[in-house]
């Protein structure tokens, strides 16, 4: 994928490993800080259709809008774009014998999920940001 970059530099929100463990549940810590993945179809936001903004569960940074969320039927929330390009960091991930593009929160460098492209979804970007629900919190917007 073009534009994949290294996180480099220090996160805006930096905490010790112990501080993250105290703030996050063991499951949240595993996904956000150890690049784990929640089981498909188990996440809180997989089928959510409510209007609002999705935030990083670790630091609260605004990451995705419900306006870019779509039904990819993949088992995790899917977005075709972050709120802005500087909200996430993309990094090559060669774990598990695959080459993928990892998505991290730009503010705290927590693992969010992966982004895929060229899968044929009818979205403006032809990208699928496949994000773990456990990596997010949601703030609904009043109509």
UniProtKB/TrEMBL annotation:
GO terms for molecular function: metal ion binding; peptide-methionine (R)-S-oxide reductase activity. Its EC number is 1.8.4.12. One of its GO terms (cellular component) is cytoplasm. Its cofactor is Zn(2+). One of its GO terms (biological process) is protein repair. Signal peptide: none annotated. SUPFAM superfamilies: Mss4-like. Residues 1-20 are annotated as: Disordered. Keywords: Metal-binding, Oxidoreductase, Zinc. InterPro entries: Met_Sox_Rdtase_MsrB (IPR028427), Met_Sox_Rdtase_MsrB_dom (IPR002579), Mss4-like_sf (IPR011057). It catalyses: L-methionyl-[protein] + [thioredoxin]-disulfide + H2O = L-methionyl-(R)-S-oxide-[protein] + [thioredoxin]-dithiol. Residues 17-141 form the MsrB domain. This is peptide-methionine (R)-S-oxide reductase.
């Amino acid at each position: 994928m073009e534009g994949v970059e290294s996180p480099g530099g220090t996160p805006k929100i930096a905490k010790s490993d112990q501080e993250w463990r105290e703030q996050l549940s063991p499951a949240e810590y595993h996904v956000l800080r150890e690049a784990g993945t929640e089981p498909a179809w188990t996440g809180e936001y997989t089928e959510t259709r409510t209007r609002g903004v999705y935030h990083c569960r670790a630091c609260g940074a605004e990451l995705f809008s419900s306006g870019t969320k779509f039904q990819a039927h993949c088992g995790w929330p899917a977005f075709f774009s972050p709120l802005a390009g500087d909200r996430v960091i993309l990094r090559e991930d060669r774990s598990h014998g695959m080459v993928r593009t990892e998505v991290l929160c730009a503010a705290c460098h927590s693992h969010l999920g992966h982004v895929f492209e060229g899968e044929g979804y009818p979205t403006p970007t032809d990208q699928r940001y496949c994000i773990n629900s456990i990596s997010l919190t949601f703030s609904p917007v009043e109509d």
